[in-house]
Write a structure and sequence with these properties.
By secondary structure, the protein is α/β, with parallel strands linked by helices. The protein has 3 domains: about 120 residues, 2-Layer Sandwich (Gyrase A, domain 2), CATH 3.30.1360; about 110 residues, Four Helix Bundle (Hemerythrin (Met), subunit A) (Up-down Bundle), CATH 1.20.120; about 170 residues, Rossmann fold (3-Layer(aba) Sandwich), CATH 3.40.50.300. Helix content is about 45%, strand content about 20%.
C-alpha cells in the first residue's frame, strides 16, 4: 500500500489503556516525529523491532502523554506492512489529540476494517479468517465466539482446501480419460466416480445444514414457562428478568396470551416466554391462548414446567399424566415456602429418573439462582460449538452453488453424458470452492466484507 493509515484500535469510551495503530510504509517515520526520550527528551530514538519502549508523545514542544511504543516491521506484522502500536492512557480526548498529530504528520484516517483488509491483501489471512475476526469482535454469546474462533484458526479454510483437493483429483481423472481415451489405459469406473462426487456433495450439504442450525441458535434460544393457572409463571418471569414484565394476579386466567422478552441470560441471548395457564375452560378467548401456549412449549429450546407445591395432589400420578411434557423439561417447583405436607420430589423422580426439579419460592426468592443455573446449563448443552459451523452469507452462496453443480454433474453422468460435458460442472464447483478461501477479484466485494468491521480493525 502506498499510504500510511492510523486509527484508535481499542473500544470507544474511557479506559485504562487506549491503543493506536499506524500501518504503512511511513508508520515508524511518522511515529518518531512525536516521540521523545523520558530522560534526555532527545528526538534521536533508536527503535528495535518487537521491543517495548516507554517514551513521551509530544505535539511540537507540548507533552501529551507518556506512552509505550512497539514497532513491527513488515512483513512480520498483523497487516504485513510496517506497523507501530502506541499504548496511551485511555482518555478519548487524549487519544483524539494523538491521532490528530499523526494525521498532521502524514497518516490518513483508516477506513472500517482497513487494517484487516490489508492483512488479507498481503497474504497474512485468508478471507474466512478475516471475516472470523469481525465475528469474534461482535460475538453476542460464548457459542458465537467459539464458532468464530474455529474459523479464525483456519478450520473452515482447511475443510475448503480439502474439498478443493478432491475436486482437482476428480477433474484430473476426467481430463485424463478425455485426453487419453484412445490409449490402452484403465480409468476409474463411473460408479467409483459418482461415489467420489457424492462424498464431496454430502460434505457440502452437511456443512450447510450445520450452518443453518447454528444460525437458528445464534438468533435467540427460546425458553418457555408453562403450567396451570396461578402456579407463579408470571412472577417467575419477572424475577428472572429482574423487572416487572408480566401482570401478576391471583385471579386464574390473567395471562390470556403468551408474553415474550429478549435478553441475555448468563451471556446467552434468549427469548423468555410466559404462557397462558393451561386448564379446561369454556372461554373461547382463553382457549385460544392455551392453544398458543401448547404450541410455544412444544417448540421451545428449553422448557420450564412450573408447578404449585401448595396443592395437595398425588405427584406421582401428576408425573405419569404429564410424562411427555415433563420429559426433558426443567421443573420449577414453586411456592416451596408454603409446600403441602404431601410434596415429595422423589415421587416425580421415581417416574422420571433424570428429572431436573428446582424447589423455588417466588415470594422469598429461594432457589431462583439454582433455577437460572439449570436453565443456563440446558442452553449451554444446546450450544456446543463442536457440532456446528459458522458460514457467512458469502460462503453459504458458494457452497449452495457447489451443491447445484455436483447434482447437475451426477444427473449428466446418469444420462450417459460424455466426460467432456459433465467436467464443466466440476469446473464450476472448483471456481466456487476457490472463492470460499478468498480468491476475490473485485474491490466492491472486498469493500462490502470489511465495511462491517470497526475502524481500528
Amino acid at each position: 500500500m502506498a499510504d500510511t493509515i492510523a486509527a484508535v484500535s481499542t473500544a470507544s469510551g474511557a479506559g485504562a489503556i487506549g491503543i493506536l495503530r499506524i500501518s504503512g510504509p511511513d508508520a515508524l517515520k511518522i511515529s518518531l516525529l512525536h516521540l521523545r526520550g523520558i530522560e534526555s527528551e532527545s528526538n534521536r530514538i533508536s527503535v528495535q523491532p518487537r521491543h517495548a519502549y516507554t517514551l513521551n508523545f509530544v505535539d511540537h514542544d507540548r507533552k501529551l502523554d507518556r506512552v509505550v511504543v512497539v514497532f513491527f516491521p513488515g512483513p512480520n506484522s498483523f497487516t504485513g506492512e510496517d506497523l507501530c502500536e502506541i499504548h496511551a492512557h485511555g482518555n478519548p480526548i487524549l487519544l483524539r489529540e494523538i491521532l490528530e498529530c499523526l494525521f498532521r504528520s502524514g497518516a490518513r484516517p483508516a477506513k472500517q476494517g482497513e487494517f484487516t483488509k490489508r492483512a488479507f491483501l498481503n497474504g497474512k489471512l485468508d478471507l474466512n479468517e478475516a471475516e472470523a475476526i469481525g465475528r469474534i469482535i461482535q460475538a453476542r454469546s460464548r457459542f458465537e465466539l467459539e464458532l468464530a474462533q474455529k474459523n479464525a484458526f483456519g478450520e473452515l479454510s482447511r475443510l475448503a482446501s480439502n474439498l478443493r483437493s478432491q475436486l482437482v483429483s476428480l477433474k484430473a481423472e476426467c481430463e485424463a480419460e478425455i485426453d487419453f481415451s484412445t490409449e490402452d489405459l484403465t480409468f476409474e469406473s463411473l460408479v467409483q466416480r459418482k461415489n467420489r462426487i457424492r462424498k464431496v456433495l454430502e460434505t457440502c450439504e452437511n456443512l450447510l445444514k450445520k450452518s443453518g442450525q447454528a444460525e437458528t441458535l445464534l438468533e435467540r434460544s427460546r425458553v418457555v414457562l408453562y403450567g396451570e393457572p396461578n402456579t407463579g409463571k408470571s412472577s417467575l418471569m419477572n424475577l428472572i428478568l429482574g423487572r416487572e414484565r408480566s401482570i401478576i394476579s391471583d385471579i386464574p386466567g390473567t395471562t390470556r396470551d403468551y408474553v415474550s422478552e429478549e435478553f441475555l441470560l448468563a451471556g446467552i441471548p434468549i427469548r423468555l416466554t410466559d404462557t397462558a395457564g393451561v386448564r379446561e375452560t369454556g372461554d373461547k378467548v382463553e382457549r385460544m391462548g392455551i392453544e398458543r401456549s401448547e404450541k410455544e412449549f412444544s417448540s421451545a429450546d428449553v422448557r420450564v414446567f412450573v408447578i404449585d407445591l401448595s396443592q395437595e395432589i398425588d405427584w406421582g400420578e401428576f408425573a405419569r399424566s404429564n410424562l411427555s411434557k415433563l420429559n426433558g423439561a426443567v421443573i420449577a417447583a414453586n411456592k416451596f415456602d408454603i409446600a403441602s405436607p404431601g410434596w415429595n420430589p422423589s415421587a416425580i423422580r421415581n417416574i422420571l429418573s433424570d428429572a431436573v426439579v428446582c424447589e423455588v419460592s417466588c415470594k422469598t426468592r429461594q432457589g431462583i439462582d439454582e433455577l437460572i443455573r439449570e436453565i443456563s446449563e440446558k442452553l449451554q448443552s444446546l450450544e456446543s460449538s463442536e457440532d456446528y459451523v459458522l458460514l457467512e452469507e458469502r460462503n453459504r452462496y458458494h457452497f449452495l452453488s457447489i451443491v447445484r453443480s455436483l447434482n447437475a454433474c451426477l444427473a449428466l453422468i446418469g444420462e450417459n453424458a460424455p466426460a467432456e460435458v459433465y467436467i464443466k460442472e466440476i469446473d464450476i464447483a472448483l471456481d466456487e470452492i476457490g472463492e470460499v478461501n478468498g480468491r476475490v477479484d473485485t474491490e466492491e466485494v472486498l469493500g462490502r466484507i470489511f465495511s462491517k468491521f470497526c475502524v481500528g480493525k
